[in-house]
Design brief:
This protein has about 80 residues and is mainly α. It has a single domain, classed as Plant lipid-transfer and hydrophobic proteins (Hydrophobic Seed Protein, Orthogonal Bundle), CATH 1.10.110.10. Helix content is about 55%, strand content about 0%. The chain has six helices and no strands. The model has no long low-confidence stretch (mean pLDDT about 85). This is Bifunctional inhibitor/plant lipid transfer protein/seed storage helical domain-containing protein. InterPro entries: Bifun_inhib/LTP/seed_sf, Bifunc_inhib/LTP/seed_store, nsLTP2. Keywords: Lipid-binding, Signal, Transport.
Length: about 80
Amino acid sequence: MAKPSNPSPSPRLLVAALMAVLLSSCVPAMTSSAQPSALCCSKMREQRPCLCGYIRNPNLRKYLTSADGKRVMRVCGVPYPTC
């Protein structure tokens, strides 16, 4: 009897999981009017090269393109990317 195959997670899910870990400190500020923490800003600056990929991901887009997401980037000194 053949073993059932374990399909690999989709790249979109992997990106979503990675972003959730790397920018988890920003979620409170991206989903409310709370100010971003120093850790959030540090992680946001660190992840700047990846932001277009996050924005292209339908699971993450809403966080980064929302008014609060854009505010977090602005407060952290991270320009909104031109993708």
